[in-house]
Amino acid sequence: MLRLFSALKYINGYWRYAFLNIFFNIIQSVLSVFSIALVIPFLKLLFEKGSSEYVSILSKGIPHFSLSIDYFMGYFDFTMAFYIVTYGKVYALTFICTAVIIMTVIKNFSRYMAMYFLAPIRNGVVRDLRNKIFSKSLDLPLSYYSNERKGDIISRMTSDVQEIEWSIMQTLELIFREPIVIIFSLVMLISISGYLTLYVLLFLPVAGIVVAIIGKSLKRNAQKSKELLGHLFSIMEETLGGLKIIKAFTGENFVNTRFQKMNNDYYNQSVKVYRKTDLTSPISESVVVCILMLIMFIGGKMVLSGDGTLSAAAFIGYFAVASQIVPPIKQITQAYNNIQKGVASEERINKILDAEINITEKKDAKTIPSFNTGVEFKNVSFAYHKGDAGYVLKNINLSIPKGKTIALVGQSGSGKTTLADMVPRFYDVDEGELLIDGTNVKDLRIKNLREQIGMVSQESILFNDTVFNNIAFGISNATQEDVMNAAKIANAHDFIEAMPNGYNTNIGDRGGKLSGGQRQRISIARAVLKNPPILILDEATSALDTESEKLVQDALSNLMQNRTSIVIAHRLSTIANADEIIVMQQGQIAERGTHTQLIAQNGIYKKLCDMQSFK
């Protein structure tokens, strides 16, 4: 049951608005009941009492104040008797009608003000929650995303967060508005006839039991629906990112069929959710109406019996007040179902927010003002998932002095990229140590560590922004001249200048408006501009044509002078001049040495060179 109110934890920081919302909801609830209850004593005075009885009421005077129904009823009787005796029944009728109109206007104004103060809560919570999820998604390690679909994460940040918004609104109404109306109505009903109200209290829980049964099933269906929507987003994301391959392999029918099947599954599940959501309101209303009809029958018999236990005016008022319980109960059942869907969405969101961040920073983490000596791997072993049968890297011992270039070669899956990814702490070692300037990287501030490293990956990672912003990414104070110089070193300046708006040209989603070679040269320019002491080049020239490769390779050679560089290469001609070449095989260092030394060994490296006809 406590899970129903779990959405309230998201409104921290918005309690000022929440209290104002509650305050105006209380006013609205009180006036809703009181405006109807006002009619009961008026009917008694107008139709059931003679002039002598009005005078008798006036002779008793204004009753002594107390917080009780009797006081308010007595005060109202006195006021109405005064107006009827002094001005006549028509004047009293005018007074009542005017009072009801005024109370209705105030009630609706209070309703608007309650929603007015709810708006910042609804939208503020959604904003904060999206910010929190997005920040957490940036903090999560890369290994987290190997087991998750990007589309499903997008679904959690959009539709699931939207469900939380509705859940908060419905929770506030479920707690503070509708129950107040029901409580005031029940108090009024008890004051009129406790006997009749006993039947209401006996049968009203029946509606609650029915709603609870449906709501429990609804939560399961809603959770399944959200999962299917996440799969649907994943298919869309993959399709839009791989349109070239889909068209090249004529896979449109396959992808379309897969999408339609998933979309149909989501449709069927959504139909179940909506049907169960829509079922509770008519069921609860039917149950309540049955109770009201039972009240009408029993109350009608009491009036017809003429024993004085219940007057006709009191019965009319009782039934009018009792009928006011129906809308709040319908609202509560609807709110209950929306909250159940919100709970299902909250569980999905918490899978991201509660995900473990295993790349953590110590409280007393150090900073390195500059890179001075080198990078060293000491008996490093690593597995992507704990409990794996084998390590991806096994007992790696490697020293990379400052200013030296180390090349990593080997077959795909031999551990080259994983080894390089250890340096910026995309992954942490499971055994052994990784040291920079003699300090374990786990003891360094992550931001400070990564500021020392520049990276050009095999796949050009560009953003839907201008050329300038892509090159200056992460550097807030970069000038036009700095960006242009970096582009010239990367052999990108000429083609950038030829673009419609030069450096202010938007390059499209993932740089889709550029050729593969152009994208890679902008990525290289980005690394050049950062000017880091440590470079990681993961197949940095693989996407370049022969002419551009020569020019960029020369630029990189100049850039890597007096820098520590880790170069991952399949094209062995690009690393012939490396200070040391590390040959990886099945997560271990199989061979090491210069190009000449490795050729002379006539081992794995020699075979790789022969396959590429390079000696």
What is the assembly state of the chains in this entry? single chain
What level of helicity do the residues show?
55-70%
Question: Which architecture name of the domain at 14-353 does CATH use?
Answer: Up-down Bundle
What separation lies between the terminal Cα atoms?
Answer: 73 Å
> What name is given to the CATH topology of the domain at 14-353?
ABC transporter transmembrane region fold
Please provide the count of β strands: 10
- Highest-level CATH class of the domain at 14-353: Mainly Alpha
Strand content: 5-15%
Spatial ordering of strands, largest sheet: 6-7-8-3-9-10
CATH superfamily of the domain at 14-353: ABC transporter type 1, transmembrane domain
pLDDT < 50 stretches: none
Rg to the nearest angstrom?
37 Å
Summarize the structure in words.
With 615 residues, the protein is α/β, with parallel strands linked by helices. Among the domains are: 14-353, ABC transporter transmembrane region fold (Up-down Bundle); 459-531, P-loop containing nucleotide triphosphate hydrolases (Rossmann fold, 3-Layer(aba) Sandwich). Helices cover 63% and strands 9% of the residues. The protein is built from 21 helices and ten strands. The protein has helices at residues 15-37, 39-48, 51-60, 69-87, 89-139, 142-145, 150-192, 194-241, 243-248, 252-305, 312-323, 326-353, 416-421, 446-451, 467-471, 480-489, 493-497, 516-530, 546-560, 595-601, 604-611, and strands at residues 374-382, 393-401, 405-410, 431-436, 439-440, 453-456, 534-538, 564-568, 580-585, 588-593. The chain has a six-stranded mixed beta sheet with strand order 6-7-8-3-9-10. Helix 19 (546-560) links the parallel strand 7 and strand 8. Helix 1 packs parallel to helix 7 (150-192) and helix 10 runs antiparallel to helix 11 (312-323).
